[in-house]
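Late entry, evening session. Most of the bench is empty. Finally got around to the prediction I had been postponing all week. Sequence below, unchanged from the version circulated by S.P.
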Amino acid sequence: MQITTCSDASGRSVTFSSKKFHATALAGLLPIAHIARSLNLFKAAKEVLSDAVPSKRNTLYSPELMFEQRLLALAAGYEDLNDHDELFHDPGFTSALGTANMASSATLCRFENGFDRHSINALNETLLSAFIDADRRLGLLPRIRRKKYRCLFLDVDSTYIKLYGNQEKKSYNGHYQCCCLAPVLCYLHGYPIAVYGAAGTSDARKVLEHYLPRLLKRIQKAFPDYIIVLRADSGFNSNALIETCQKLGAHYIMGFPPIKAAQQAIYSKGLKYAKRKQAKRYTTAGTAAQIIGATDWNAKSWNQPRRVIARKRFDRRTCQLDLRLIQTSIACTKDSAKEGYAGELSLITISDMYEKVYCGRGRMEQWVGEFKTQCFGDRASATKFHANCYRMTLAAYCQMLLKIARRLQYFGVRKANRKATQKTVRTFRRDVICVTAAVREMRKKLHLTLPEHLHDRQAFEALFFIRI
C-alpha cells in the first residue's frame, strides 16, 4: 500500500495498492457472443471466408477468427482498427472471443484489403442465410394463421456514406451534395438481409434491378407460406422492378412522382372512393383537411393499368397543398382467386393502405440511421472499394446480432419493464454491453463482480439467463 499526499473533499488521505486484479469494461459482451454461438449466426459467413482468397494469405490468424473479432468489437462500440491493439488487454473481450491471441490492426487491415467482388457478393448473401437460421430457432417472423395470408415487407432504400480521401469509386452526388458511396440497403421484417455497395453516382434503381430477382427467389424459397411485398419510395419507381415482382409472384407498394398526367387522371375521376377527414399535423396550424382515394390508371410506359392511391392534404391557415401518390399491385378484395389478392392487406381500407402500410416504411429511416451511426456502417475509411463493402457487411451483421439480442432481452424481463428494454443500439450498448466488472478467472468458471449501481440491472441480468 502506498500513501499519497492527495486528499479528498472530506479530508481523508488517499492511498492506493499495486496489488493486481483483472477488470473488464465489456462484461455484457459475454452473453452477446453466447447468443451468436448458440444460433450459429456466423456459420454461413465463416464458410465463405474459409474459401475466400484472403484466407490463403494468412496462416497465424484464421479468417473466421478475424471476422468474429472485428464483429464483436463493433458490437462493443470499437469501430477503429487501432482499437484492436489494446482490446487484448480486456479479459471480457478475450473471454467472449475465446482466445487472447488476437490479430493486430495491421493484420486486420491486410485481411480487409484482400477482398474482391466475388467474395463480397458471397459474404453479402450470408446475411439472409443467417436470418433464416435465426428465424427457425427463435421465430422472428409473425405467426401464420393460414397459408398465403400473412405478409412480409421487403423494405429497400439508398443512403450515402461520406468519403474524404482518395478512395475507389468516390464520386460527387448532387442529391446528397457530397463525395460519397451510395449503397442500397434491404431489410426483411426490420432485419438487414443485404447491403449492395455502389458508387456515389450510381442509380439505386439499376443496382436493385440487378440483385432483386435472386433475392426474391431466395426469400420465397425460405418462406413459401408468406406473401412478399416490396416497399420503397418514389426513387425506386422502375418498370423493371415492378415487372420483376409480377413475374416472381411478389407484390409491391412504392411511391410515384405526382406528374401532370397522373394529377389530371386523379382529379378527373374525383378521387374515387375518397373520404374527407381532419388529419393532425405537427405545425402551427394544428390540423388540415385530407382526402385519400384510389383509382386505376395506365401510363404510356406501363403494359397494364395499375392501382394508384392519392392523398391530398390542404391546410387552410397556411394555404399549403400537398399531393402524394403511390402505386401498388394489392387489390381491395376478399376473393383469394382474384388478381392482386394479398391476404390481410387486401382487407384493409384505402386510408390504412396509405397511412399504415406505405407510411410504415418511415421506420426504414430509423434502421438506416442505426446502421450508419450506431453500428458504424459509415466507417468507410479504406482505400479499396471492396474493403469498404466488407465493413458495411460487418455493420449489417452487427445490427442483426444486436437486434436479436434486444428481442431476446425484451421477452426475458417482466411485462412491467418490457417498454424499458425497447432501446436503441446506443442505449443498449451503454446499459448492457459496456458494463465494468471485476473478473476472476478459474479453470471451469468465470466469476464477475458487478458494481453496486447499474443503469438497468434487471435488463443486464436477464440477458445472462436466456436459453437458446
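Two things to note before I forget:
The longest helix spans residues 385-410.
The mean pLDDT is 86.
Will write this up properly tomorrow.
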